[in-house]
Design a protein that fits this description.
Blueprint lengths: L4 E6 L12 H9 L5 E8 L20 E5 L18 H28 L9 H14 L4 E6 L3 H13 L2 E6 L13 H17 L2 E4 L2 H11 L6 E3 L22 E8 L7 H12 L8 E8 L7 H9 L5 E5 L3 H9 L3 E5 L12 H9 L3 E4 L4 H8 L3 E4 L4 H18 L4 H14 L5 H15 L5
Parallel strand pairs: 1-2, 1-4, 2-3, 4-5, 5-6, 6-7, 8-9, 8-11, 9-10, 11-12, 12-13
Helix pairs in contact: 1-14, 3-4, 7-8, 7-12
Length: about 450
């Protein structure tokens, strides 16, 4: 009987941590076993992490072994408050201490970009490397697979691969030095260029999630990359089995956004377009509801809420705040349209938001306010909804109006027609399922080892 191969998956973000960086490593860990691979995961002990979703742990097969290394925290932890009663002098002491901690926290935030290179998670590196070495001595690993961000994951993998002679795949969910979010510190960026170059040269294969990323990597590093493969992100159909619609709005055209909004990604142009459609009597405001789950305004800002009030749209905009992942999926399931709001930066079209794949799994029409690029290309090629430039008012207005019109027409359709459309949709998006991407990774690992799946 052939020995089942074993991979060490290195990823800082892994359940019970939730968020956008988690699904790719989680789903690889979930499905690689079906393609002949044992999986060990080296991840962080999530003591300091703010976004936890323990329900995600239920998706991990029992034979996946998880190893957690602690992370040192640079910033002092905030006090939870409370304490025993004492004299007036004793009570004053914690206040002085809190002020001192606040000043220290402010100072550390300012100097952090000069200390934590290539990212904040470098503080996890020492403990993760130590545990990784112990694992490599205890277990025969055939492959190391590191996925970023954070790119610290690659530095750990690079060291273990070199020390133990194990083949290594470096997976980039986002670019590193070609990322739109850079430090702006010249000497740091030069240092990171050298760090990235070593990773690109030493990894046995580089994988990434968009054709644009792959093209940019090849243009920059040429033949120093030993092998470059594209493995898209996707969705897991099992996440949507038995999903119950939640926060529904019967008899309304219900558009939903679930995620984080901030300065360069906001719904204000869309809101103004909707207000104009109402004023022109092209849409009936009684038909409309927009639900926003997640972060509607970034802490310290109120532009989006202010816009809703200024336009007088309080009756059609519902802000739900953060929801558990399953509840957020239920919100999407109960919607008539799913909003995909992208950044307005010049290179935003190079990115495919992970949310697009989640929307594919839900199967509702998408209103994508995104710069032209791979994401809009997928939506248009597979006929998944409407697309508009997020800075083009007329295009945004027309795209929303088109989906509204389609909703009105759909209400008149028979149930059998709607079921036929749902099945057709599922067939169109099948290439983007997570299980397929795990198969692709398993095949790549087998090829690197000189065998076949």
């Amino acid at each position: 009987m052939t020995r089942k191969k074993t991979v060490l998956l290195i990823c800082y973000y892994f359940p019970p941590i939730g968020g956008g960086g988690v699904p790719r490593p989680l789903k690889m860990a979930k499905y690689l076993g079906q393609f002949g691979w044992n999986v060990h995961v080296l991840t962080v002990a999530p003591a300091y992490h703010a976004t936890l979703d323990p329900s995600l742990l239920e998706q991990i097969p029992q034979d996946v072994q998880i190893h957690r290394a602690p992370e040192w925290n640079l910033l002092p932890k905030r006090s939870a408050g409370g304490g025993s009663a004492g004299t007036t002098v004793a009570a004053a002491a914690p206040g002085v201490m809190s002020q001192a901690k606040a000043k220290l926290r402010s100072l550390l935030k300012k100097i952090k970009p000069y200390l934590l290179i290539p990212d904040d998670q470098i503080l996890w590196y020492p403990a993760a490397l130590k545990l990784g070495r112990e694992l490599m001595k205890q277990q025969q690993f055939d492959m190391i697979f590191s996925t970023s961000g954070p790119v610290t994951n690659h530095l750990i993998a690079q060291k273990l691969s070199a020390e133990f002679g194990c083949q290594w795949i470096a997976d980039f969910r986002d670019p590193w030095t070609q990322n739109m979010h850079r430090s702006g510190i010249a000497w740091r960026e030069k240092l990171e260029e050298k760090m990235e170059q070593r990773v690109m040269r030493q990894a046995n294969a580089i994988t990434t999630v968009t054709a644009s990323f792959a093209k940019n990597f090849r243009q920059k590093y040429g033949e120093s990359i030993q092998r470059l493969e594209l493995i898209y992100n996707g969705f897991d159909r099992e996440d949507f089995v038995g999903l119950i619609p939640m926060h529904e709005a019967p008899q309304k055209f219900h558009a939903v956004y679930a995620g984080i909004l901030y300065q360069k990604r906001n719904p204000r142009l869309l809101l103004r377009a909707i207000k104009q459609l109402i004023d022109e009597q092209k849409v009936d405001r009684r038909d409309l509801l927009l639900s926003f789950a997640g972060v509607f305004d970034y802490p310290g800002y109120s532009e989006n809420r202010d816009c809703v009030e200024q336009l007088g749209l309080q009756d059609i905009v519902r802000v739900l705040g953060n929801l558990p992942h399953r509840e957020a999926l239920g919100l999407m399931k109960g919607a008539d349209a799913l909003l995909l709001i992208g950044d307005v930066t010049s290179d935003a079209g190079h990115y495919i938001p992970g949310k697009l794949y989640e929307y594919m799994g839900i199967g509702k029409p998408i209103l994508a306010l995104n710069k032209a690029g791979e994401a809009t290309g997928i939506i248009q090629s597979f006929d998944l909804g409407q697309v508009a430039d997020p800075e083009d008012f007329d295009a945004v207005k027309q795209a929303f109006y088109q989906l509204y019109q389609e909703w009105k027409q759909k209400r008149a359709q028979q149930e059998d027609q709607q079921e036929e459309q749902r099945q057709d949709y599922q067939e169109r998006v099948k290439p983007y399922e997570r299980k397929e991407q795990a198969r692709q990774l398993a095949a790549l690992m087998n090829e690197l080892l000189g065998g076949q799946a």
